[in-house]
Write a structure and sequence with these properties.
190 residues, mainly alpha, Single alpha-helices involved in coiled-coils or other helix-helix interfaces, AhpD-like, 2 domains, 9 helices, 65% helix, 0% strand
């Protein structure tokens, strides 16, 4: 069994001391979140990898987009549910609960997004993210047109695919190294 206090099961010690910019980033996380997410600590054995991860995360999840932060977090949870990624389900499930103000929504997305009471646009977005996760090679112009038909632009479709692709990658890394969520995530926004 993995020690829950460790960010992952691999013995990858953080760079010591951390570069000044990284330490500042970790200090901001501690101040704003009350913790340093284990995903960041897991990558801190190689500052180049950590910087690449945070740059991509910040771009995909926080940059300007036609998708709301909640929509992006919902995609993260649906992809992570299919991939059974304990870390991302726990961390991003908490984000869905926080952003939606609805603890049930976060749990429904974790268990079965189809059981949630979603509008047609959100359901189409999550169906597309599921398609990309389960069988991306079968994605067709008809799938993209279904998104356009409910109001998504081609840029939105790119962003949906980017979020789904990012979490498919990170889910596999998290599973591969047995990354564990910070204990704080389990009780947040319930």
């Amino acid at each position: 069994m993995t020690d829950q206090s460790r960010p992952n099961a691999l013995d990858l010690p953080m760079v010591d001391p951390l570069p000044e910019a990284t330490q500042k980033y970790f200090d901001i996380c501690q101040e704003k979140l009350g913790m340093i997410p284990n995903v960041l600590q897991s990558y801190a054995f190689d500052i180049e990898k950590l910087n690449a991860f945070t740059a991509m995360y910040n771009d995909v999840m926080l940059a300007e987009s036609g998708l709301s932060k909640l929509e992006r977090e919902m995609i993260a949870v649906v992809v992570s549910s299919i991939n059974k990624c304990f870390y991302c389900l726990t961390a991003h499930g908490a984000a869905v609960r926080q952003l939606s103000g609805d603890p049930k929504l976060g749990e429904l997305l974790v268990m079965n997004w189809r059981a949630a009471d979603l509008d047609a646009k959100t359901a189409a977005m999550l169906q597309f993210a599921e398609q990309l996760t389960v069988s991306s090679s079968k994605t067709s112009e008809g799938d993209r047109q279904s998104l356009r038909d409910v109001g998504f632009t081609d840029r939105d479709i790119f962003d949906i695919a980017s979020v789904a692709g990012f979490f498919n990658m990170t889910n596999r890394i998290a599973s591969g190294i047995d990354m564990r969520p910070n204990d704080e995530y389990h009780s947040q926004y319930r």
